[in-house]
Design a protein that fits this description.
Layout: E1 2-6, H1 13-24, E2 28-30, H2 31-41, H3 44-53, H4 61-72, E3 82-84, H5 90-102, E4 107-114, H6 117-125, E5 127-130, E6 136-138, E7 157-158, H7 165-186, E8 192-196, H8 201-213
Parallel strand pairs: 1-3, 1-4, 2-3, 4-8
Antiparallel strand pairs: 5-6, 5-7
Helix pairs in contact: 1-8, 2-3, 2-4, 3-4, 4-5, 6-7
């Protein structure tokens, strides 16, 4: 079945996605990963998306949906997929549900990770990233090596600009304005499982597994 993984930045979607994908036997599809592949490969859709990006414009919902659909029709995803980072707007949700219906598919469940804003700010503003290999750390829960270097490759570990507290709060405001309403739209159309995302990782995984098995 097709499943949507929903939640604000810092809710832990990336951490939980692998476990859900394994549990259900469906591929994890990240919108960001698909976009980067199309842009890197210079596909027709990638070039169309870049034409907007290069002008500093948002990529239209229709183009975003076409890019996601291009992944959903691949062999490994035809039996269902875990959608992470999509849909981000109500129009995208409308297009997704319409496309799935046309393919004889539907969203069987929505996993909504709910986390208080104060926790999200601490999580995101405490995140650090290796400049070389991309490994991520957290100043409280998973600090880098001595001297602020990556324990995997020894390169410098920094705080990315989008992890600064003021940027984090702006991202959360954007989520509340543009993406949170999606949950209200999908609610009457799919089963929504709201999970406390502030728990320990293992407890969240167990709660998700229980919800989806039901």
């Amino acid at each position: 079945m097709d499943v949507i993984l929903f939640g604000p930045p810092g809710a832990g979607k990336g951490t939980q996605a692998s476990a859900i994908s394994t549990l259900l036997g469906i591929p994890h599809i990240s919108t960001g990963d698909i976009f980067r592949k199309h842009l890197r490969d210079g596909t027709e859709l990638g070039q169309l998306a870049r034409s907007y990006i290069d002008q500093g414009q948002l990529v239209p919902d229709k183009v975003v949906c076409d890019i996601v659909a291009s992944r959903l029709i691949e062999a490994d995803a035809q039996g269902g997929a875990l959608l992470d980072g999509f849909p981000r707007t109500v129009p995208q949700a409308e297009m997704l549900y319409g496309w799935l219906e046309g393919e004889g598919r539907s969203v069987g469940a929505v996993v909504n990770l709910e986390v208080p804003e104060t926790v999200l700010v601490k999580r995101l503003s405490g995140r650090r990233t290796c400049l070389a290999c991309g490994a991520t750390y957290h100043v409280q829960h998973n600090p880098p090596g001595q001297g602020g270097v990556c324990t995997q490759c020894g390169a410098e570990v920094v705080q990315r600009k989008d992890d600064h507290e003021d940027t984090v709060r702006a991202r959360l405001e954007t989520y509340a304005r543009d993406t949170a309403p999606v949950l209200g739209w999908v609610g009457p159309r799919s089963t929504v499982h709201t999970i406390d995302g502030s728990q320990a990782i293992g407890d969240i995984q167990a709660a998700i597994a229980t919800a989806l098995s039901a």
